[in-house]
Amino acid sequence: MIALSLAEIASVVGGQTYDIPDPQVRVTGPVVIDSRKVEAGSLFAAFVGERVDGHDYARDVVDRGAAAVLASRPVGVPAIVVDDVQAALGALARHVVERLGATLVALTGSAGKTSTKDLIAQVLRRKAPTVFTPGSFNNEIGLPLTALSATDETRFLVLEMGARGKGHIRYLTGLTPPKVGVVLNVGTAHIGEFGGREQIAEAKGELVESLPAEGTAILNADDPLVRAMSSRTKARVLLFGEAADADVRAENVRLTENGQPSFSLHTPTGCSEVTLRLYGEHHVSNALAAAAVAHDLGMSVEEIALALSDAGTLSRWRMEVTERPDGVTIVNDAYNANPESMRAALRALVAMGKGRRTWAVLGHMAELGDESLAEHDAVGRLAVRLNVSKLVAIGGREASWLQLGAYNEGSWGEESVHVSDTQAAIDLLRSELRPGDVVLVKASRSVGLESLAQALLEGFENGGDAR
């Protein structure tokens, strides 16, 4: 964080200082909520969770070098006490970004947010110092923490914004007002909470409504609900996609023999070739969104194409590809899942597995509400239509719907199997995998299938080829 005195922080957040001998002591380290991440000069924000109360760690973090604790009650060590720690964290983030003078880029969407955020960050840091959301730290706590990690040298701040209901993105943009806003797509993630795609679009569009007139709304031309958001912003609109009228578009899209996308990138300033290191055609749209941001911020098409072609995966368990020494390829995409990302991952699996046996090891997709049965059934059916060799559905009711969809789609359904838990799937795969197989592992975060992917790599760590 930019260096601030404890007195200044207390003023910004409307807090009272307790047990602080010198209010001019400055916070020079990061703002953290995990006591294990405290460094010299840190500010530790003490949250009360379901199982852990951060206030209990106050003395320990100060003993290890924290400048003070941001707390909701006195803790017997230097502290700034506020009524609401989350609100105070947000107020501090707003103060810091106003001081920075950096360009804030915010993005949202139903699928692909984290991968796109990682691409944007990797492209922009070719131009200037860039800070970006780690992983999917995109909520009311994670977003302020990301903003607070910026320093005086930061020129671009790239922020992923998630939403589970109307008003969430409006709140986040109030904490960190963006100049550039990107909306990737409107899908069915969290549809059970929102009630429908139109309601999701209403919530996602809060991002473009927040933009200033001198800002830029970067919208997916290939998604009608996103394209329609152009009427909801006073900012300049820049379209990306494969549509002929997109300002930043891809032409001649194809996949390499490894399933990596290659295309001609067209911007208003020219054209250049891109071959991504990522897997799956769905990353073309993500790359175009990143290219549109970079174009808007002054990078040439040649610079953008080179940066995109060099960019890799920064966040764990998102199409993380490892080839074992025996030739089995594990695709760990277990971080999360929704119908759109499931379909994209299955298509990527098939592209990667040409001429090889392919396995789709899938768990349930959460928060689909009344659409859950139809969506799980559809994913199972799609696996058949794409000629995935084997489907392993893991879990309870939703997994049975996946398997049933595959079975009902045709005779291939006999190649599908429903197992009760992760260990049963591990046992099955260990006994049946053979050299050359490609295995996709994917489910909603709550299923925790990354442990299955790791189990399939155990004993191969020192010889595997991580790509």
Automatic annotation (TrEMBL):
This is UDP-N-acetylmuramoyl-tripeptide--D-alanyl-D-alanine ligase. The keyword Ligase applies. It is an enzyme of class 6 (ligase). Its EC number is 6.3.2.10. Keywords: Ligase. It comes from the Bacteria. It comes from Streptomyces citrinus.
